[in-house]
Amino acid sequence: MTDPLLPGDPVDLGGYRLIGRLGQGGMGAVYLGQDANGRLVAVKMIRPEYADDTEFRGRFRSEVNRARQVPPFCTAEVLDADPDHPTPYLVVEYVDGPSLAEVITRNGPLGRGSLHSVAVGVATALAAIHGAGVIHRDLKPANVLFALGTPKVIDFGIARAFEVTSQHTRTDQMVGTVAYMAPERFDTEHRAVVGPAADVFAWGAVVTYAGTGRTPFRADSPAATAARILTQPPELSGLPDRLREVVARTLAKDPTERPTAHELLDLLLDLDTDVKTKLIRPELLQAATAARRTSRFGFGRRRPGRVRRMVLAGVAVLALGVTGVLTAQLLPRLGVAGNGQSGAPTATGGAGTPGPTSSSSRIAGRPAIIDRLDRPGQWTDSRDEPEGRCVFGGGRLEARTGMSAVYRCHGPQDSFKDQTVRVDATVLTPGACAAIWFRVAGANAYLVSLCETEVRLGVDTDDRVTRETRAAVAGAVLGHARRVGVVVQGDKATVEVDDAPLITTTLGPPSLTSGRMTFGVIDDVISGDARAAFAHVEVTKL
Question: Which of 20, 221, 365, 518 is the most buried (most CB within 10 A)?
Answer without folding.
Answer: 518
